Structure formats: C-alpha cells, structure tokens
Amino acid sequence: MTTTTPPTTAAQQFALRRHSPLQRVQHLLHAHPAISPFLVLVISFVVFSTLNPRFASPNSLSLVLQQVAVIGALAVGQTLIILTAGIDLSVGAVAILAMMLAAKLAEGQGLPGALAIALAIAVGAAAGALNGALVTRLKLPPFIVTLGTLSVFTALGLLYSEGQSVQATDLPAVLSWTGESFPVGRFRITVGVVAVVLLYLAVGFALAKTAWGRHVYAVGDDKEAARLAGIRVDRVLLSVYVVAGAIYGITAWILIGRAGAASPNAITDANLESITAVVIGGTSLFGGRGAVLGTLLGALIVGFFRSGLSLAGVDDQYRVLAVGLLVILAVAVDQWIRKVRS
C-alpha cells in the first residue's frame, strides 16, 4: 500500500541523498500530498492581496469561507470515493434530493426539524448504498453508475418538489440554523462553516487513525493486494459510498442555511466543483493517496481564485478558465508524483 509518511529507514534516507533535488521534491510531494495545495493557497493569497488589498480583509475572507462551505462538505464524501479509485458524479443530486425531501415534509407534514435533518442524512446514506451496491454487486464502473444515478436522483428531486422551492422562513428554525453567523475576532463565521470543519476533523481522524481508514487506502492503492491481505474489499467499498452519502445528507442541511431556502435548482455545478476541490487538493484520481486536509485546501483555492479574480475585475469566464487550468496542472503533477522511485 502507498504510504503517506516520509522514509525513515537508513537505507531509504541514503537513497534519497543520492537523488537529484527534483527527485527529492518528487519524494516529498509523494509522502505529503497536502504540500502542493498549501503552497498554491499561500501564493494565491499573496498575489490576490497584492492585486487588491480588499481581498485580505476579514469581510472578504469570511465570505470566501461561507461560499466554499457547501462544496467543501460535498468534497469530503467525494474524497473518500476517489481514495478508492472511484468517482461520484451524483453528489449534488443526492444532496438536493435529501434536502427537498426533508424540507417538503417539514413544511407540508409538520415534521420536526431534528427528524427532518435525520431524514436528510438517511436519504443520503440510502442513495450512497444504492451507488455502492451497483459498484460492488454488479461490478459496474463507478463513473457509469453515478452518471446514471445523477439523472435518477435529479429527476426524483424535481418530481417530488414539483420544481418548487421552500423558503427557510417556512421551515423549522433548526433547518436554517447553519446559516446563522457569529463573530470570531474580526471575522464572521457561520454555523455551517463550523459544521464543515468538524466534518473534516471527523473524517480525517477516521482515515488516519482507524483500521477502516487504512483499509480505504489499501483498497484504493491495489484492490487485489488488499483482498489477498484479508480485507473485505466489497464491504469497504460499500461502506465508503454509504458514509459519503450520509455526508451529502449533512451537506443538504448546510445548504439550506447557506441559501436561505431549499431549491431543487441549487448547486448545479456541485459535481464538477467537488471533484475539482479533491483533485486540486492532491488526492490521486487513481486512488490510494491523498487526505481530506488537501481537499479542504483545494476548496479554499477554488474560493480564493473566484473571489480574487472577481475583485481584480477579471471576467467570470476567465475565472472558470483559471480553475480549469488548475485542475489540469494538478492532474499532471499527480502523474509526475506517481512515478516516484525509491
């Protein structure tokens, strides 16, 4: 299995000393995938602050954090799936379906807010279980499975909601609680941002400190080797899709607070944006290497580029172009890092 710690044996250290500076950088980035996005984040902050000092203001940075909260949350689940060498194109559709079911039942049937949140999480987990079952039982490629369920979940959300939005004022207060903000020094942070941070901490701990997390990395690195090592590959894969789906359900709650409404037409670009955050964050599309810390940095990078280029007066289409180039560069760097030799 690909490790995420630097070489510690005397033989490995001796081998590194024989490498060129570029090879040492390659080894370093292979061992610590979060370094690349961290450097990009720092450089982008310096550049955009120089172009427009307003970018570094507490109000501007607070707004960036609030804007990336939803995509950042979806990207946590996407990271888990990509770590297993899969991909999920249905992330936004699952979150919308969970949100509309919870909102409509809370509005029309008087479902208590806490139960509505639990329902959203359960719906997300069920959708993830369906994706996981199709991947593990029918052995269908994750790309094809989630491309199909993207349409299924989108249609179900639109049919159930009849294409109509539900305003937060018509919902129990707890459903829009994630949109409430509070001061932290000179910054204003929403409850949704705090929820996303807690989500990253929980998933990061699970990946780094539990047997389940080690199995996720092993399955993503080499499924056959993991199976020979006694890991129940299909069970691990199914659990990853279920956990990711539950995270999408939590994101539905965060989205209601952020948008101030439950709309079936929200986050239309969520699927690609979540993948963008994961890829820019240093997680390999081939599985087995990466971390949620990198994904968090990737989401912030996307937010920085959009806010920074906007404040610099750059046309919106060029902002999209810049993010696209970042994705291509990130994948190219990942390919180079994968060629590391001991």
Automatic annotation (TrEMBL):
Membrane spanning residue stretches: 27-48, 68-101, 113-134, 140-160, 189-208, 236-256, 277-305, 317-337
Top-rank lineage group of the source organism: Bacteria
Location of the protein in the cell: Cell membrane
Keywords, ordered alphabetically: Cell membrane, Membrane, Transmembrane, Transmembrane helix
GO cellular component, one term: plasma membrane
GO molecular function: transmembrane transporter activity
Descriptive protein name: ABC transporter permease
